[in-house]
Structure formats: structure tokens, C-alpha cells
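quick one if you have a minute, typing this from the bus. theres a chain ive been looking at and ive put its sequence and its fold in C-alpha cell form underneath. please have a look and point out which stretches look like helix strand or loop to you. anything you notice is useful, everything is just below.

***
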Amino acid sequence: MKYTLDKLPYANDALVPHFDAETMEIHHDRHHQAYVDNLNKALENNEEANDLDLEGILKQVSKFSPAVRNNGGGHYNHSLFWNILSATPKVNPEGKLLEEINKTFGSVDQLKADLKNLGLGQFGSGWAWLLVKHNGTLAISSTANQDNP
């Protein structure tokens, strides 16, 4: 399977003042594109990956090379990142999500502080995540480099 970089679901300048157009262009069009290109190179002649989509590869990433792990994770994580950003965001969580955040973390502000601390606690590159555990409860975690939960 040959991977490609999807276009952003908004214009490069749609997230100003949080992200300027040049930052978006560099990070999406160059940085993310490099993950896609390097993932495709890492998977060349890899018969085991032929029938798997990206999530399938990541679910069994230990079977693949470190290059697949890093570049596949980089492609997946960044694709998720671009798609959860919005030019017209909801400012605050609502409904069940808000209830679960308050139940688990005490408040949205505490969740933000906890996520910020996880992110700042990374050595080198990595990600901080809000996730739903198998039992349906919320949690936060961090992963190094381009790994994901």
C-alpha cells in the first residue's frame, strides 16, 4: 500500500492566531510529508504489510522495522492532529465528555494542566494523549517519539 498525505481540512491560515500559515505549511507540507515518504520507503518490498492499512500496521508494529514504527506513527499521529484541529472550534467540552472529564480530572482546567505537564515532561519529542480506556473511562498518557497508545 502506498501512503499519501491528505490535504488539510482547512486553509493554512485558518488557525491564526494559534498557528500561523508558515508554521502550518512547514509542519504539514514538509515535516508530515517526510513521514509519509519515509514510511513508503520503509515498506518497500515488505509483503507482510501489503494487506494492512496503517492502523493494522501500528497494531502489530513490533513486527516491523524501527523506520516503520517511527514514520508510520508520525504519519498516523499527525493525521489525527490535523483532523482534531478546527478553524471553528468548540471552546469547551459538552455533554458526556464534559461529565467524564469532571469525574476523572475534577475540571477541564485540571485536565489541561495535567496534559500540559505530561507534554512538558517529555524528553525529546513525543505526544500527550487524552484517551478512552477499554473500560470506557478517560485517562491521559504520554508516548515517546512517534508512538501512540
User: Anything to note?
Assistant: The first strand starts at residue 126 and ends at 132. The radius of gyration is 17 Å.
